[in-house]
Design brief:
The protein is of the alpha/beta class. 18% of the residues lie in helices and 28% in strands. It contains eight helices and 30 strands.
Length: 537
């Protein structure tokens, strides 16, 4: 696995750094290191402090054009402290450190950002003013968010000192199937509901209730909140880094209330120490999107006042300007100005209508339905939600997309404590998930960029419709039960109309045809698969 480049500084002299697991020696006279755009670099210092997790330590970086960037430092165990930096402006960035610890104060150095990016690297996720309804990468290319839930990803290779083979296998599957974001927790402990008895026969898939994994000292059953467990975060670094390497965004939920985590009291010193440390340690990664908490107000722990305070803490330490939301629609609805995009959790049968209402209501922000109630079945009954049929779950993702909002895919075999990282290598009879369905939806909205279309419900007849913003071109979602789809009224003049079909289950396109007004549109997969009818002039 490619590693973060490490630059070790002692008394402000650069000694060495690691590139792609090969040590590259840098002259101590150079006092500098080079990285690509958006590549993450760790700059290491030595120092001691009585309260290392609350010690103030940061650096001010100045770009070639005079832009300044504050970069927080953090304690990394022993006598080591790190500045974690990334950026996009090419040229020499000069920095000076500031700290109450004399050995960390007034240290100087420079990092050169080369005018190139690593293969596949596009930068962080942003919302540009020119199109504030959609997500983009920093390099300007559109980001069609297609997320995947995996709460226990942090634990998958936690005890493997050599690497992350299980995580890499799962992330490769996601990457190959168009899933480009993981909705995940920093830490989850266990589920509160009764577990499937079959899971006990497959302990290799059970990750709930870890006895020796905890972000604080002690463990979840006997926590010691006096300090953080640096080793936990060093291992978590590997997961975030691997995700960045594969172009997968971490939708990182700092808290989760319904997974039996023994959190410290709200507003306590331990609570603040943990929260601030997570923001400092992971803010430099371009593949981070922040979320204060999973289901932030659902379980009687937090209230609006607390979440607003957490968001204010984020804003003060979020120096790399990563996007922030709160997984609670009620909160987002009451405080839309406090979040960068609207987080939704809608399971209802009227999903399309509700998502369309949100799209029309929040005209200056993207909307992301993190949970739409579809939880595809797995070998274990983990948490079934309202829908488990794979096609029905997929349909709900399309309902979100055709309403102009983003969505998530949940599979019961990976979303909670049961984590089948290699589902297609399981024994015969074990259910295999339909990951490929999401490769197809991502492909569709790559061929026909999601950002270029807007929902037009007044054109609906038996499905859903999107219209290109600048030309007469329509995407029409046609359920497999729809026998014929009448669309001739959309085209008022006599110009010829062309069309083709897209199979949502196979990703297959039909041939292109010229429309004959004497006939109705009938899907070639009528009764077999939902399809998308693409019409244009």
């Amino acid at each position: 696995m490619k590693q973060i480049r490490i630059v070790t500084l002692l008394l402000a002299l650069v000694l060495a750094f690691n590139v792609n697991a090969e040590i590259k020696q840098v002259s101590s006279k150079a006092k500098s290191a080079s990285i690509n755009k958006w590549e993450v670099i760790d700059i290491s210092f030595k120092g001691k402090a009585k309260s290392p997790f609350t010690t103030d330590f940061y650096a001010t970086f100045t770009s070639p054009t005079g832009k300044t960037q504050k970069v927080p430092g953090f304690y990394n165990g022993g006598s080591e402290w790190l500045l974690r930096f990334s950026g996009s402006e090419a040229g020499e960035w000069i920095y000076t450190t500031t700290s109450e610890v004399s050995s960390l104060n007034s240290k100087k150095g420079k990092v050169t950002i080369l005018d190139k990016a690593s293969e596949g690297e596009k930068g962080g996720i942003i919302i540009p003013e020119k199109d504030n309804r959609h997500f983009y990468y920093e390099d300007g290319s559109p980001y069609f968010l297609m997320a995947f839930e995996c709460d226990w990803l942090y634990a998958l290779d936690y005890h493997n000192k050599e690497g992350l083979p299980k995580s890499e296998h799962l992330l490769n599957l996601l990457q190959q199937n168009g899933l480009n974001q993981v909705v995940m927790n920093v830490f989850s402990y266990d589920v509160s509901w009764k577990k499937d008895e079959l899971l006990a026969k497959h302990p290799e898939h059970e990750f709930g209730g870890p006895k020796d994994i905890f972000p604080f000292l002690g463990n979840n059953e006997n926590p010691d909140y006096s300090a953080l467990n640096v080793e936990f975060f060093k291992k978590f670094d590997r997961t975030i880094e691997l995700m960045q390497e594969k172009g997968i965004v971490s939708h990182l939920m700092v808290y989760v209330w319904n997974k039996l985590v023994a959190w410290p009291d709200m507003y306590s010193d331990a609570d603040n120490m943990y929260y601030d440390y997570v923001v400092k340690r992971y803010g430099a990664f371009p593949n981070i999107m922040w979320d204060v908490s999973k289901e932030a107000l659902f379980y009687g722990r937090a209230d609006d006042e607390y979440i607003l305070e957490r968001l204010e803490r984020f804003r003060k330490a979020n120096y790399f300007n990563r996007l922030v939301t709160v997984h609670d629609y009620g909160f987002c609805k009451r405080h839309p100005e406090s979040v960068d995009y609207i987080s939704r959790q809608d399971w209802t049968y009227a999903l399309y209508t509700n998502m369309l209402n949100d799209f029309n209501k929040y005209k200056g922000k993207p909307v992301f339905n993190i949970e739409h109630g579809g939880y595809e079945e797995s070998p274990y009954v983990v948490f079934p939600g309202s829908y488990i049929n794979a096609e029905q779950c997929l349909k709900r993702n399309y309902q979100c997309a055709f309403a102009g909002v983003y969505s998530t895919y949940y599979w019961q075999g990976t979303s909670w404590n049961a984590l089948i990282y290699n589902p297609f290598e399981q024994e015969d009879g074990f259910y295999k998930p339909k990951f490929e369905y999401f490769k197809h939806i991502t492909q569709l909205f790559t061929d026909y960029p999601f950002k270029d279309y807007k929902p037009v419900p007044w054109h609906n007849q038996a499905g859903y419709c999107m219209q290109h913003k600048e030309k007469e071109e329509y995407l029409n979602y046609v359920p497999k039960e729809t026998y014929q789809y009448r669309k001739e009224y959309m085209f008022k003049d006599k110009k010829p109309v062309y069309f083709k079909w897209f199979n949502t289950l196979t990703g297959e396109y039909s041939e292109e045809f010229k429309y004959d007004k004497k006939k109705e549109f009938i899907s070639p997969w009528y009764g077999k698969a939902d399809a998308v009818l693409i019409t244009w002039k």
